[in-house]
Design goal:
The complex is a heterodimer of chains A (about 180) and B (about 100). The mean pLDDT of chain A is about 85. In chain A, α1 packs antiparallel against α2 and α3 packs antiparallel against α4. With about 180 residues, chain A is mainly alpha-helical. Chain A folds into two domains: about 50 residues, no CATH class; about 80 residues, no CATH class. Chain B has one domain. Chain B has four helices and no strands. The radius of gyration of chain B is 18 Å and the shape is flat. The termini of chain B are far apart. The model of chain B has no long low-confidence stretch (mean pLDDT about 85). The chains are: A mainly alpha (about 180), B mainly alpha (about 100). Chains A and B meet through α1, α3, α4 and α5 of A and α1, α2, α3 and α4 of B.
Chain lengths: ~180, ~100
């Protein structure tokens, strides 16, 4: 029996792993490889290998069908967020491009993906299960936060961190002066 | 009914795995991960126990985990059109809403 089914799971783990790393602050060098790692993981999961069991095949095909419209959809939403009015300054070209991509994404979803045919019970049960985990996690976080702080001295900023903070502050101060 | 319980147990395992992967990949010197790891492992054990009890006889822990967690992944991905619909409504709001 081949163990290629692991590729699918490793791909999914790498997506979560990469997203978690990408969300870390710029002081952590891991954040730089986060999103590329997530993309690589997505590619591993997309090209699903042999040896998957029934439910995995169903999950894999649902994931692949979703990716066809979800990736352009997210790109469209990102473009829209860049073109949306901020302080009454709108970028119409970005808005037009964003809405075009979102419209294509909806078209692909409705035409090829059969989006609302999946049994809703399993989705609701999954969300309920994830909510249970979330509540337990919040309780654990509250427990950790309620513990007394340690007396360890926090290390000062490194040179690269100092440079980063200085750059951000000077950039913001320059923006304020311009306004 | 068995499939619903299997999906619920899969969601418990999936959620715990998400928390554990997040803890290990985003760990930093000011983190206190031990209670979070223990709570996640406990929830995962409950999920695994339920999936072992509900799944086919003779299945290994790994097989039960694969079957139940992939059911939960399918359920989660199936909710994405609804999420995208909500996201689209938010985009309508930020694109055409009045900015104060």
């Amino acid at each position: 029996m081949t163990e290629w089914w692991l590729q699918w799971w490793i791909g999914l783990f790498m997506v979560v792993c990469g997203f978690s790393m990408g969300r870390m602050g710029p002081a952590f060098s891991r954040s730089k490889i986060g999103y590329p790692l997530a993309l690589f993981g997505l590619a591993l999961a997309f090209f699903s290998p042999e040896g998957l069991v029934d439910n995995e095949i169903m999950a894999s095909s649902t994931l692949n069908r979703t990716l066809y419209w979800a990736i352009p959809g997210l790109v469209g939403c990102y473009t829209l967020s860049k073109g949306a009015p901020i302080y009454n300054v709108t970028k119409p070209a970005l808005l037009l491009a964003g809405w075009s991509i979102v419209a294509i994404s909806w078209y692909v979803m409705l035409k090829y993906s059969e989006p609302f045919t999946h049994e809703i019970t399993s989705t609701l049960v999954t969300i309920f299960g994830l909510l249970i985990v979330f509540v337990v996690h919040i309780m654990a976080v509250r427990f950790v936060e309620s513990r007394p702080l340690s007396d360890e001295t926090v290390e000062p900023l490194s040179e690269s961190e100092k440079t980063y903070v200085t750059t951000v502050l000077s950039r913001n101060l320059k923006n304020m002066e311009d306004q | 009914m068995a499939e619903i319980i299997l999906t619920l147990s899969g969601a418990l395992v999936l959620g715990s795995l998400l928390v554990l992967i997040n803890i290990f990949s985003a760990t930093h010197p000011y983190h206190k991960p031990l209670p979070l790891v223990i709570s996640s492992l406990l929830v995962m054990s409950v999920g695994l126990y339920i999936s072992m009890a509900t799944g086919p006889e003779g299945a290994t822990v790994l097989d039960s985990m694969r079957q139940s967690t992939s059911l939960a992944i399918t359920g989660l991905i199936a909710s994405s059109p609804v999420l995208f619909a909500i996201l689209t409504l938010l985009m309508v709001r930020i694109s055409f809403g009045r900015n104060h």
